[in-house]
Design a protein that fits this description.
about 200 residues, alpha+beta, four-stranded antiparallel sheet, 3 helices
């Protein structure tokens, strides 16, 4: 006759399954926690790596900005030097013209006429003086127009306010103001104009 098992095997099986379930849940939670931890470590590493790259880029950008600033300063210095060189070259080229300007003004000045004031603004020369007659002013203007170094004389004003005592009476002097344009040439052109202005020049 077969024996009967009267032990509570159902309760034991239920307890075994319960333990198995909690073990499985615990292992799952532990695995999930490990994956989250690893993901956190990876994200932290990626963030630190990107921050390092950003720092390198910021350093390089700052270095490039400094180099650009130095280049701009060098460009400004270069431009200032070029401007100075240009001014010096202009002064060198116009220096003979200034000598010719005064020489022509003295040679063209007729008797009975003298200058009181001379002012130059670029190529425009402003003259002020006194003359004994209108004819002397007109003659002076013609002489200036005929000069190879000046052109386009223009009479601005003439008056007869000044008086100079003479032995036989009062001599009326006429105040005049006129403008004349200075012809500036450089190098060979200047020499050519000077040569052509001489008697027999340009032949």
């Amino acid at each position: 006759m077969a024996g009967l098992n009267l032990l509570p095997w159902r309760e034991k099986e239920r307890e075994a399954k319960k333990k198995q379930f909690f073990t499985l849940v615990g292992a799952t939670l532990l695995g999930a926690a490990g994956m989250v931890f690893l993901a956190h470590l990876y994200m932290q590493y990626a963030q630190e790596y990107q921050q390092g790259r950003n720092q390198v880029l910021e350093t390089e950008i700052a270095s490039l900005d400094l180099q650009i600033k130095k280049i701009e300063e060098l460009d400004k210095t270069r431009q200032a030097l070029l401007d100075r060189i240009k001014v010096i070259e202009n002064l060198q080229s116009t220096r003979p013209a200034i000598v010719h300007l005064f020489d022509e003004m003295v040679n063209a000045l007729p008797k009975g006429m003298y200058l009181l004031h001379l002012q130059q603004k670029g190529t425009l020369v402003q003259l002020e003086g006194k003359a004994e007659s209108y004819a002397r002013v007109s003659s002076y203007m013609k002489q200036l127009d005929a000069s190879p170094w000046m052109n386009s004389s223009n009479l601005n004003i003439i008056s007869t306010d000044s008086k100079v005592a003479e032995s036989d009476g009062q001599l009326m002097l006429r105040d005049f103001k006129l403008d004349v344009t200075q012809l500036l040439t450089q190098g060979g052109e200047e020499n050519k104009v000077a040569a052509e202005s001489k008697p027999g020049g340009g032949s």
